[in-house]
Amino acid sequence: MSIVLGPNQYGKSEVRLVRVDRDTPRHRITDLNITSQLRGDFRAAHESGDNSGVIATDTQKNTVQAFARDGVGSPEAFLLRLARHFLAEPQVTGGRWRAEQYGWERIGAGTPDGAGTSDAGAGHDHSFVRGAAERRTALVHADDAGLTLLAGLSDVTVLKSTGSEFSGFPRDRYTTLPETDDRILATDVTAWWRYDASFTDAAGPADHDERFAAVRELLLTTFAGLHSLALQQTVFAMGSAVLEAFDDIAEIRLSCPNNHHFLVDLEPFGLDNPGEVFFAADRPYGLIEAAVQRSENTATEHPVWSTIGGFV
Ligand SMILES: O=c1[nH]c(=O)c2[nH]c(=O)[nH]c2[nH]1
């Protein structure tokens, strides 16, 4: 038996990058957390400490920062630019570049509308308040087959106060959950969708910001519009709506906790509770996860998914 080096990658994780666009007095903030990881011929470094082919992780961090001097644009476009830069080195045959974007809202602008700097025309020119937990995400994966682009969002917290049921499930000696035809449905949506090559190709007309906003809106309006018989049904409907609307999205994966809201028993106080007072439990929670795919794509799992932690 001999011991051999298996799959490996290395790079700089979580480069916190804030760019201020200040070409006019109305500044814009792009706040990103970027990870760069390279794959390729790095055997010599692992086996004998020969660093002659190693692009230092510090250099990768510096490259991220230097590229930002020209502007960041969308997280997708920025990652594609980084990927192409590092792949030009002969020892780099693949890699993984990942971004999370945090939203900043203009102070005085009113309601936030997704990660990024809201620029609806209202609000302060150069003072911002950090938005909700929601993050916009992007990932570029490179291997022998080329570049694969994922876009996504994390922890988009949504709730509907009616229009949700759960009944008809089997009962055994451990089942205590009552059936309900009217409950709160609440979740934190995490989703990744995979673009096919026609969208990923930088030569094309891809507007990543516009597309991100359209997918996010579709996920939210589907959540709102569907009378839900189960969170599973809602998750599948949200994914289906995205695949139906955009031919160049090959697949979408969703992970949605069921943030349970339990009706409080007010009877001990001589009060009824017609669906008005709830206890919001933070754990345990149901966890509903699904890949929504096109039937022609189901035979093999795309390798990009093995680079995403957890189910999505
Ligand atoms: O939408 C739901 N799906 C479930 O699978 C489930 N299980 C449960 O206890 N409550 C719910 N709700």
TrEMBL record:
Pathway: Purine metabolism; urate degradation; (S)-allantoin from urate: step 1/3. It catalyses: urate + O2 + H2O = 5-hydroxyisourate + H2O2. SUPFAM superfamilies: Tetrahydrobiopterin biosynthesis enzymes-like. O2 binds at T57, N258. 5-hydroxyisourate binds at T57, F166, R183, Q232, N258. GO terms for biological process: purine nucleobase metabolic process; urate catabolic process. Its EC number is 1.7.3.3. Urate binds at T57, D58, F166, R183, Q232, N258. GO terms for molecular function: urate oxidase activity. InterPro entries: Uricase, Uricase_CS. The active site is at K12, T57, H260. Keywords: Oxidoreductase, Purine metabolism. It is an enzyme of class 1 (oxidoreductase). Belongs to the uricase family. PANTHER family: URICASE. Catalyzes the oxidation of uric acid to 5-hydroxyisourate, which is further processed to form (S)-allantoin. NCBIfam families: urate_oxi (TIGR03383). This is Uricase. It comes from Promicromonospora sukumoe. The lineage of its organism: Bacteria, Bacillati, Actinomycetota, Actinomycetes, Micrococcales.
